[in-house]
Write a structure and sequence with these properties.
203 residues; mainly alpha; two-stranded antiparallel sheet
């Protein structure tokens, strides 16, 4: 079951992100724990795509949530999308960490945004051999995209963020995000079958 969606437990409806955020700001540890559990996997997934350094990502996440709790009285009450806020905060922390690390300042892999794609588990109609071939085709196609294009595609279609939110995270103009994603999709159209592309963009 998707943790990011409202859940029904009997007749009790789990609180929405906005009310959870409000309770967290008031010092409710249960609300804070629920925010953590809802978003931690998505944040770790993004962080590993961003720099492929598990220890660095874990440290950044630990610091992020520790600082969230300690500074909660000073945080904004008008968060519209908690995941956007958290991913944006994590990205800034990872950038600062990488910029301070001389090992990463001239590292070739800094130009890559690793993109892992897996077929939906419920898709039982596709044989394993076919799925493996689709995986190979998609990885090959994604290799033709720039780092910025891969990150924009990932945020828009994997994390379900709006174009405005993607622009905010990547420090880009919204029009530039539209153009970046449009160009990326045009490249993907040339190299992978349309059904696979639609599966990718409908996640």
């Amino acid at each position: 079951m998707d943790k990011g969606k409202a859940l029904l437990t009997g007749l009790q409806v789990v609180a929405s992100h906005s009310s959870l955020w409000g309770r967290f700001l008031e010092g409710d540890r249960h609300a804070f724990a629920e925010i953590y559990e809802t978003h931690i996997d998505h944040l770790f997934h993004y962080g590993m795509h961003f720099c492929q350094d598990k220890e660095r990502v874990n440290d950044a996440l630990q610091d992020l949530f520790q600082d969230l709790w300690l500074s909660r009285e000073h945080l904004t009450t008008t968060i519209q999308n908690v995941r956007y806020y958290l991913i944006s905060s994590l990205r800034r922390r990872l950038l600062r960490s990488l910029q301070k690390d001389r090992r990463w300042q001239h590292r070739d892999s800094w130009e890559s945004f690793e993109f892992e794609y897996t077929l939906p588990r419920e898709n039982n109609l596709i044989l394993e051999e076919t799925a493996a071939e689709q995986q190979r085709l998609l990885q090959e196609a994604l290799g033709h995209l720039s780092r910025r294009q891969r990150e924009a595609i990932y945020l828009r279609f994997y994390q379900n963020l709006s174009y405005q939110e993607v622009a905010g995270i990547m420090a880009m103009q919204v029009d530039s995000v539209y153009n970046t994603i449009s160009k990326a999709i045009s490249i993907l159209k040339k190299t992978i079958p349309l059904p696979l592309l639609l599966t990718l963009l409908s996640r």
